């Protein structure tokens, strides 16, 4: 049996570890050729010992040096930069799960050398889809988004045209603050935002979920990934997180995709192309039919989730999404470090978009990688400037 060669970019994160768990259930079919991480020293050591990849890329230089010393006489080759990965190395499947803009260039690089790429790095789609899509066409790379919403849309709309579809709903749980009194939002602490009611996720994505920023980013991703008219998309609240997308067709039929709140399910189906008995990977859940009677859906309350008011035509094209993404990364990090209040995320974002230089950086239709980083830097610098300017207001 020829084993499929696997690369996991961001193997110590939530998506990366879930992917390894899926692969580990049938190791005979896979050869883990390359893993990558930033600075999680103990988890990197554990993965090298357990999975014995041919290459491990460690981005953080201090961690790289420590790992390099520890494994200098072992079979795993420890690298500090993706540029040092041999050009001739080919992969059957790459799982792109690096968090943040740091995942852009590695995702572009591995798209060129992979038969199939499972996309979980939002920034690659939001900031660089025009680059990646050209590579996909040239190399005939198969792409499967593994965020549950985009995975669902792809599954539901496969073989359909824009003319067939009336509406596409992307669901949002509403996070931990769906019923929290609005007058208490000023007191929200990072630890409160980390407590997602349904999913086990990293800190950054948990905060994005709590204020629906993740849904704004997912809308932008959907605009880029799929051929459908952006005006057909809508966010709706679905507290149970069991239905991940709903498609309303013009023929009078509607379809939805259901799966339990376990990322191993879309990851497994993406890896095995839906030809998998999920009970071999995920512990059997209760019969979903008993849960369908309790499904709830509601419109988004814009007072509770003001970030949804940022959705307009400026985010459908050009380079405004790069600014949105970069500014949000800075703001979430500052909130985690208690430098700004929870409401400060939206307030500063509004100021960034109203800045006199915003249009100058937001008009690029197909920015190069260099231009993407230039736009990203402006957004981060401007966000820090506005945080400093409003610091006394926040404390």
Features:
about 400 residues; alpha/beta; Rossmann fold; Rna Polymerase Sigma Factor, Chain: A; seven-stranded parallel β-sheet; globular
Q: What would a concise description of this structure say?
A:
The protein has 395 residues and is an alpha/beta fold. Helix content is 42%, strand content 16%.
Can you walk through the features of this model?
The chain is α/β, with parallel strands linked by helices and 395 residues long. It folds into three domains: 4-146, 3-Layer(aba) Sandwich (Rossmann fold), CATH 3.40.50; 148-309, no CATH class; 312-395, Orthogonal Bundle (Rna Polymerase Sigma Factor, Chain: A). It has helices spanning 14-24, 41-51, 61-70, 104-112, 122-139, 148-157, 190-193, 203-211, 213-225, 264-272, 289-292, 320-336, 344-354, 358-362, 369-389, 391-394; strands spanning 4-9, 30-37, 55-58, 77-79, 91-96, 114-119, 142-145, 165-172, 233-237, 243-249, 254-258. The model has no long low-confidence stretch (mean pLDDT 91).
């Amino acid at each position: 049996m020829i084993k499929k060669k696997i690369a996991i970019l961001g193997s110590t994160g939530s998506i990366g570890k879930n992917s390894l768990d899926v692969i580990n259930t049938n190791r005979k079919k896979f050869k883990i050729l390359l893993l990558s991480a930033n600075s999680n020293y103990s988890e990197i050591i554990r993965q090298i010992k357990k999975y014995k990849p041919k290459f491990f890329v460690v981005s953080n230089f201090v961690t790289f040096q420590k790992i390099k010393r520890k494994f200098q006489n072992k079979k795993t080759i420890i690298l500090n930069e993706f540029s040092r990965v041999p050009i001739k190395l080919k992969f059957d499947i790459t799982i792109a799960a690096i968090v943040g803009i740091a995942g852009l260039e590695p995702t572009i690089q591995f798209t060129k050398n992979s038969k199939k790429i499972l996309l979980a790095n939002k920034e690659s789609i939001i900031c660089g889809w025009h680059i990646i899509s050209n590579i996909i066409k040239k190399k005939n790379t198969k792409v499967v988004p593994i965020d549950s919403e985009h995975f669902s849309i792809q599954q539901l709309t496969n073989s359909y045209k824009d003319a067939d579809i009336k509406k596409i709903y992307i669901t949002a749980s509403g996070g931990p603050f769906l019923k929290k009194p609005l007058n208490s939002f000023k007191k929200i602490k990072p630890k409160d935002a980390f407590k997602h009611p349904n999913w086990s996720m990293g800190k950054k994505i948990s905060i994005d979920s709590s204020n629906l920023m993740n849904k704004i980013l997912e809308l932008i991703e959907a605009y880029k990934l799929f051929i459908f008219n952006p005006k057909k998309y809508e966010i709706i609240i679905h507290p149970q997180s069991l239905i991940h997308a709903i498609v309303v067709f013009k023929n009078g039929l509607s379809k939805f995709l259901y799966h339990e709140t376990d990322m191993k399910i879309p990851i497994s189906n993406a890896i095995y192309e839906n030809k998998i008995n999920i009970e071999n990977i995920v512990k059997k859940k209760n019969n979903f039919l008993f849960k369908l009677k309790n499904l709830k859906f509601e419109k988004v309350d814009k007072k509770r989730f003001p970030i949804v008011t940022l959705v307009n035509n400026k985010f459908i094209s050009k380079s405004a999404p790069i600014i949105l993404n970069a500014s949000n990364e800075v703001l979430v990090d500052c909130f985690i470090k208690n430098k700004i209040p929870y409401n400060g995320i939206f307030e500063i974002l509004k100021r960034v978009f109203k800045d006199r230089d915003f249009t100058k950086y937001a008009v690029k239709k197909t920015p190069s990688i260099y231009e993407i980083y230039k736009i990203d830097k402006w957004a981060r610098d401007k966000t820090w400037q506005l945080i400093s300017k409003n610091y006394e207001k926040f404390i």
